[in-house]
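Everyone, study these two lines:
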Amino acid sequence: MAFNELTDGLSEPVRKAWERSLTSGRAALGRRAVLRAAALTAGAGTLAACGIPPARNAGGTGDSTANAARDLSDSEKEVNFSNWPLYVDTDEEDKEKHGTLEAFTAATGIKVRYTEDINDNVEFFGKVKPQLAAGQDTGRDLVVLTDWMAARMIRLGWAQKLNPANVTTAITTVESRFRAPDWDPGRLYSYPWAGIQVVVAYNRKATKGKEVTSVAQLLEDPDLKGRVTFLSEMRDSIGLTLLDMGKDPAKVTADDFAAAVARLQKAVDNKQIRRFTGNDYGQELSSGDIAACVAWGGDLIQLRADNPDIEFVIPEKGFVTSTDNLLVPAKAQHKTNAEKLIDFYYQPKIAAQLTAGIGYVSAVTGVKEELAAIAPDSAANPLVVPTPEMAAKAHVFRSLTETEESDFEEKFSKLIGA
């Protein structure tokens, strides 16, 4: 299926932004390539047949009965779980074994059919869109999608509202800062699987020992001229720039956005910023070809392990964070079993096992203490377990209307030359 068939109904600027995400951005398969590049090539699914019908529930009514199917959970002790590659704890000797999934089956008797078939948000959306638009079961009871795509699924009416009685552990243990995203207030449809952090990073050898501590320094320090990169993900680069300007990306206005673009444009025009990158900044940072950049925290864990000269900084004015989220698709046939699996992962001990295995931020209260017992280095790493002071500096980029999304992406595309 052609890319434009996956993104029918989107404006051209938004379509281009999705294409960047698919090919090189945080939404792409390559975002975990820094961690285990070779393994990521496995399991890349083919796109569903073309010919997408008009969407049903396109208005996103949120009616939990309209998008529900007969729940077979009582008679069929199974759950079909689709996730990204390398995004669950894995046995070092037997890569087919996942301790937390096996523990869930042992505790509940529910068998998990686990599939690593979400290689990027856009491709996966293309796989399931024809079935969801036709009001059909996708064959998946639980999926993991990044917040902006999760928001789209909810808005289209293609995610089922969760039964609070089945996620009581999640309700009580989800950290307060993850409780109420503007695209799913009160977490009625979703729960975080892991958090993603956007920070400043630099190569101490490339800067000759000079610290890089702020976005302002990235944009203005003459010692860094021509050796700085920002990210091609609009929310990440604009979000950090807004924070440096004293603006909250959770409350961004059109004027705020324009001011942030203008500030970045100045740094592009005077050659301070070399380019805007996807996940490919890692090699350049490690080699010292670039001196400093805007980076994703999950990448930096492995980069720092391989190169002790790489440092990361949480800017004093704050950093941007987002989440990958668990959702039950419309018409899923084992909704209760999926909800039980969501709830299972919100036990601190289980969350600690998952966190130790994937190296991303957990949304579960009490995970640090449990993690310290099994992976003390991870528990002490603020890129995995943010300190309270660091967490207080975390900010999200608010949800955008369709009109805003198109307008913002158009302006950002011109900025980065996309």
User: Anything to note?
Assistant: Residues 254-269 form the longest helix (16 residues). Residues 26-64 have pLDDT under 50 and may be disordered. Residues 147 and 276 are 22 Å apart (CA to CA).
